[in-house]
Design brief:
Helix content is 40%, strand content 24%. The longest helix is centred in the N-terminal third of the chain and has 21 residues. Helix 1 packs parallel to helix 7, helix 2 runs antiparallel to helix 4 and helix 9 packs across helix 10. It folds into two domains: 281 residues, Aldehyde Dehydrogenase, Chain A, domain 1 (3-Layer(aba) Sandwich); 182 residues, Aldehyde Dehydrogenase, Chain A, domain 2. The chain starts with a strand and ends with a strand.
């Protein structure tokens, strides 16, 4: 079966076919997915533009009901969707199902937000004048999503866009079209009018550029690499478009001498290695104070080495493969870079062979690093964590903030003083205390500072800032 693009309410063939391959088993083809051309992307944009007026006039209750139906079907099919996700992306099945649940909950949340569009009425400084402040949809919104969360991230962009009256053109990552296609198929049967939601699969160079450059697209939300995100920002700003970027992190986890030891090891293990470290919120820099350093490294290395790496769908698998050969090459390359700069690999960092051919790698823990090394400056995006030894809390905070990124940060401590101080002084957009840096709720705002993020926050009620425009109306009473 060829999985087609969804444009103006119809399923449309593309100009080529993308074979979606299982990274756990390279002999397993998940499916064949149509790749759209730039012309087809523009056709989808035209359809979204034409559908705007009608969608804006749909009542907030109708929008809410549609989003609720989408969320309900995702939740009812969580096992099926989670299996598809794990098969195409490589995260263990429990994580795939958990991500599908998150996507369903996101749509349910924004079904509620659709009923709360917001607005204010305030008195004017002039007698007899009323001031009304309302929010309106931006218009056609282009959504460009990454491969590491192939259903959750599309969901948390699509749901608020539709909830607040925008129309959508979605371009998912080329590596993982299956989850986005399954989501599009659910949306296509939820009563959403033709043209309101469109799916165009294909390359960033063709489909992504068409979305960014079209004068009919009012706003672009992108999650992906720093380099691509910066180019999109330049393109959007030069065209007067609204832009929202999430571009990764080099997230610190501070472990202090007074931390609950077992808890700190568990937090670091989860944050650094789970889902193969392929999370922009992964804690890839472990900043550990002198008094606990050696014991902590030994315990974490033992736990990391014991993680079961295998087929994402196999029972007991704790780490699946990385997503692709190029990602595996990048991850292994950074391990060698760390070695060449003086780092010591205490465990892992090797390609693994399993029963089926796949992109398997043992989780790597690297010690004897400093914050100037490339392994601590650049995002690896794999199961690779480095340890930086510091003398005390003040040195730890200085190192944690010394980065071009600012997405998430964490601290493990039993001290209320240090926990409270770090929440204030961390230069990240999200701070976690005695929790993995990757554990973020779907109803709370998501985003960072510095090189990690640009524009309004994603998720939760704060998503309204990106997907709506403020209008102020003055009336003489």
């Amino acid at each position: 079966m060829l999985h087609k693009n969804f444009i103006a309410g119809d399923w449309v063939e593309g100009i080529a076919v993308n074979r979606n391959v299982n990274p756990s088993n390279l002999d397993d083809v998940v499916g064949e997915y149509a790749r759209a051309s730039a012309a087809q992307a523009n056709a989808a944009i035209d359809a979204a533009f034409a559908a705007l007026a009608g969608w804006r006039n749909v009542t907030i209750e109708q929008r809410s009901d549609m989003l609720d139906r989408i969320g309900s079907e995702i939740l009812a099919r969580k096992d099926e969707l989670g299996r598809l996700l794990s098969r195409e992306e490589g995260k263990p099945l429990a994580d795939g199902i958990g991500e599908a649940v998150r996507a369903g909950r996101v749509f349910k949340f924004f079904a509620g937000e659709a009923l709360r569009p917001g607005g204010d009425r305030i008195p004017s400084v002039r007698a007899g004048v009323d001031v009304e402040i309302t929010r309106e949809p931006e218009g056609v919104v282009g959504l460009i999503t990454p491969w590491n969360f192939p259903i959750a991230i599309p969901a948390w962009k699509i749901a608020p866009a539709l909830a607040f009256g925008n129309t959508v053109v979605l371009k998912p990552a080329d590596l993982v079209p299956g989850s986005a296609w399954a989501l599009a198929e659910i949306i296509s049967r939820a009563g959403v009018p033709a043209g309101v939601f469109n799916l165009v699969m294909g390359s960033g160079r063709e489909v992504g550029d068409a979305i960014v450059q079209s004068p009919k697209v009012r706003a672009v939300s992108f999650t992906g690499s720093v380099e691509v995100g910066r180019n999109i920002a330049i393109d959007c700003v030069s065209r007067g478009k609204k832009v929202q970027l999430e571009m990764g992190g080099k997230n610190p986890l501070i472990v202090l001498d007074d931390a609950d030891f077992d808890q700190a090891v568990a937090v670091a293990l989860n944050g650094a290695f789970f889902q193969c470290g392929q999370r922009c919120t992964a804690s890839s820099r472990l900043i550990v104070t002198d008094g606990i350093h050696d014991r902590f490294v030994a315990a974490l290395a033992e736990k990391a080495a014991a993680l079961k790496v295998g087929d994402a769908l196999s029972p007991g698998t704790e780490l699946g493969p990385v997503v692709s050969q190029s990602q595996l090459d990048q991850d292994l390359g950074y391990v060698e870079i760390a070695r060449s700069e003086g780092g010591r690999v205490v465990t892992g960092g090797e390609r693994l062979n399993r029963e089926t051919a796949g992109y398997y790698m043992s989780p790597a823990l690297i010690t004897e690093t400093d914050n100037a090394m490339r392994i601590n400056r650049e995002e690896v995006f794999g199961p690779v964590a480095s340890v930086i030894r510091v003398r005390d809390y003040e040195a730890a905070v200085e190192v944690a903030n010394d980065t071009a990124f600012g997405l998430s940060s964490g601290i493990c401590t039993t001290s209320l003083k240090y926990a409270s101080d770090f929440k204030k002084r961390s230069a990240a957009g999200m701070v976690l205390v005695n929790l993995p840096t990757a554990g973020i709720d779907y109803h709370a705002p998501f985003g960072g500072r510095k090189g990690s993020s640009y524009g309004p926050r994603e998720q939760g009620a704060y998503a309204r800032e990106f997907y709506t425009a403020v209008k102020v109306a003055y009336t003489l009473a």
